[in-house]
Amino acid sequence: MTCWPPRSDPRLCVLLCCAVLAVCAAASSTGAGVCQSPGVASCTDCLCRGPQCAWCFQKDFLYGSEPSRRCDLPENLRRRGCGSEFIEQSEVKVEINATLSGTQVSPRGISITLRPGSQASFMVAVKQLQRYPLDLYYLVDVSASMQENLNHLKTVGVALSLRMTEHTSDLWLGFGSFVDKPVSPYISVHPSKINNPCSDYEIRCRPAHGFHHVLSMTGNMSEFTRVIKRQRISGNMDTPEGGLDAMLQAAVCQNAVGWRPEAKRLLLLMTDQPSHLALDSRLGGIVVPHDGQCHLENNVYTGSTRMDHPSLGQLSDKLLENNIHSVFAVEKQQYQWYEELVQLLPGSYLGKLGIFQAPNLIDLVVDAYKRLLSEVAVSVSVEDLAVSRFWVSVSPICPQGSTRKDQSCSGVQPGQTVYFNITIGQHACSADGKDNDVVVLVHPVGYNESTVVRVHSKCGCKCRPTGHCNEDVQSPCSSQELRPDHGHLKDLNIDPNRSCRADGWNVDCSSRGVCECGKCVCEQSRLGLIFGKYCEMDDFSCPYNRELLCGGHGVCVSGECVCQEGWTGESCGCPTSPTTCQSPDGFICSGQGKCVCGKCVCDDPQHSGEFCEGCRICHIKREICKNVDCSHSLKGAEHCNITCAQLVGPIEDLSERVSSGRLLGTFLSVCVLTVLCGLVVVAVSQLLMQKRARSPGGASAEGGYHCTGKDVSYIPRTNEKTVTYRRDRPPDHLLEMHIQVPKMPLGDLWQY
Ligand SMILES: *[C@@H]1O[C@H](CO)[C@@H](O)[C@H](O)[C@H]1NC(C)=O
Ligand SMILES: *[C@@H]1O[C@H](CO)[C@@H](O)[C@H](O)[C@H]1NC(C)=O
Ligand SMILES: *[C@@H]1O[C@H](CO)[C@@H](O)[C@H](O)[C@H]1NC(C)=O
Ligand SMILES: *[C@@H]1O[C@H](CO)[C@@H](O)[C@H](O)[C@H]1NC(C)=O
Ligand SMILES: *[C@@H]1O[C@H](CO)[C@@H](O)[C@H](O)[C@H]1NC(C)=O
Ligand SMILES: *[C@@H]1O[C@H](CO)[C@@H](O)[C@H](O)[C@H]1NC(C)=O
């Protein structure tokens, strides 16, 4: 096998080939072909092959053929005689729990049933309210370089709350500070510097700390300003700070921070340095991964020296879970570093922090709030253990005026609703093969409501009530009967009615199979499938109707259709019930005919129409009889009417015949007249021509015509052309004639 691209690593070749094969497999995984595989031995196998496959567990279904034949498209199974109640198939159900309702997200509860290979779609509507309360938590890096920023935070509170009145119903602020993990080498552990890291500069600073929660959410702006004024800076050694560690605490310590459940939540991180990431703290001897829990004691983060920084994924999960939008207000130099970080945190915003500019910080918050709210996205999370067994696709339907970006809508205005079409599909069953429920959470980013989707994955087959899920997997001489320890029971176990010969046949298995242990094993035919207890059935040797064997309403037994109830006819094409013949007035064929194979056959040939409802003559008859004067009748008016009807019949017929005769006559006379007129015209023109031919130079032409011995007046004019077409094989005399024809002064006729 040659490989593309040439000269590449052989492993790459294998990979490429696998990819190609996978694509092929995916492409062919439609239609009936995918269900029919000799390897399918049980119901579970069958349903795993695709959502379109079904398994028939009817006991005698396709008796004599391999068990894999029980797996097919449901319509094929039904056509081969499997009762609908014996068909196990992938059922995809989506049920919406209407008992739960939300103001912003609906529905709140959905339960769906899936099988491997199947998928289900549902819609989640996310409505943005006009106004939300807003909680804003300032998480400020208080390392020495942040002194200026801390100073102008003091003036922010009141101004910001004034600016935000047009966007939110009320604004609450909170405050927390962080530096870094208080261990070496991130801080100096010299005794003189532990308590005052700024001792070198003769400034009084506070000790370094991982995170201090300072002010819980409050609407009292003077309280906020008072607390900010009390803040003092701290110091550490290395450049990056422990911002992400502090963010996680601020997000998960709901009670201490006092996030309001009904509020939109912004967590604003102010820093002028990059942040430490997970695994960074190994240098300080901290190797325990973060557990994602709140570790605040007296508003001091106690886990800082025990646990590593959280990973970005962990932080992102916790922010989502607590409906928190994060805003990064960073110094210009660090902008790029955070730009990449923000892309990994859904619902986050990045703004540049200008030095000595309080208005800038206010604008930043207002912008962030507007931007974050106008962007509506959902995060769909599947339980950890089941994540590999499902796939999810999200496609938003954005309201007018907004634009779609991948899986979210941006530019959504307050009061608008965004719809998300969410499709959940199942790849596989859990390893234990049990049916179990998996919870999928659809959480609009930053919203306090979410949709809980309970996915019930069906992995086994119920095969109620008989349990033939994988019957007849063994050969007809089933292993149980032949096992030595059952030897003496053998005869009891065998169905005494077992035989390979149908009543009235003198060959086994209709001579289309072999008899093994009293059971027919039907032969394979290229024409189709042979099956049945005596191999008497097949799917190819019966009449077709509407391109379906036995019209799709019967099974083919010994070459004849055995129709389902409600159908009859050689190819089961005729419904037995006459409903199709019922005319709108409720009678069968308007009472004027019989229903034959679902169609009306009228008794009286005068009647016509789909339901024999039409009869032009009958109407005329009635009209005539109405006007008949019955007073002269000897036997009474009623009798007169009857006789009238009887009499009118033949008269009508006669008149009809007469009138049609008249029509025919007119037609014939018109024909004759036309022919006569034609002849007259031809004769006249001929006369004219001859007259001119006799005039000077016309003699030779006259001779030419007389040679043919034909009456020239009847030669159709089109002959002039016909001759020209026969140039390939010109009969000499015709050619001559042709030459002479143009010499005839025919054109002169038109020059008069
Ligand atoms: C709807 O949700 C409620 C609360 O979770 C639950 O008690 C109830 O059984 C659910 N109803 C349905 C039909 O799933
Ligand atoms: C707001 O905070 C200030 C200072 O802490 C306090 O004096 C005042 O009583 C508070 N106002 C309200 C309404 O709680
Ligand atoms: C979510 O927020 C809305 C709007 O602020 C509020 O009406 C609702 O009560 C909140 N829901 C919960 C569960 O807190
Ligand atoms: C939702 O998505 C699925 C899969 O892409 C699609 O089949 C279905 O038609 C969509 N439904 C709507 C209402 O757009
Ligand atoms: C054998 O056939 C008879 C009559 O057709 C039937 O009544 C009986 O139930 C059958 N026995 C078994 C074990 O199928
Ligand atoms: C004769 O039949 C016509 C229509 O069938 C009816 O309208 C009319 O009344 C009848 N005449 C008599 C005298 O019964």
From TrEMBL:
- The protein's superkingdom reads Eukaryota
Record GO biological process: cell adhesion mediated by integrin; cell migration; cell-cell adhesion; integrin-mediated signaling pathway
- Predominant place of localization: membrane
Q: Does the keyword Glycoprotein apply?
A: yes
Give residue ranges for domain Integrin beta subunit VWA: 42-461
Kindly give the InterPro entries that the UniProt entry links to this protein: EGF_extracell, EGF_integrin_2, Integrin_beta_N, Integrin_bsu, Integrin_bsu_VWA, Integrin_dom_sf, Integrin_I-EGF_CS, vWFA_dom_sf
Q: Sorted alphabetically, which PROSITE patterns does this protein's record hold?
A: I_EGF_1, I_EGF_2
**Signal peptide stretch:** 1-27
GO CC terms of this entry: cell surface; focal adhesion; integrin complex
Q: Which GO terms describe its molecular function?
A: integrin binding; metal ion binding
Q: Which UniProt keywords apply?
A: Calcium, Cell adhesion, Cell membrane, Disulfide bond, EGF-like domain, Glycoprotein, Integrin, Magnesium, Membrane, Metal-binding, Repeat, Signal, Transmembrane, Transmembrane helix
Kindly list the residue ranges recorded as spanning the membrane. Answer: 663-684
Give the membrane topology, semicolon-separated if more than one.
Answer: Single-pass type I membrane protein
Kindly list the places in or outside the cell where this protein is found, as annotated in its UniProt entry: Cell membrane
Entry similarity comment = Belongs to the integrin beta chain family.
PANTHER family documented for this protein? INTEGRIN BETA SUBUNIT, INTEGRIN BETA-8
This protein is called what? Integrin beta
Q: Which organism is it from?
A: Nothobranchius furzeri (Turquoise killifish)
Q: Gene of origin?
A: ITGB8
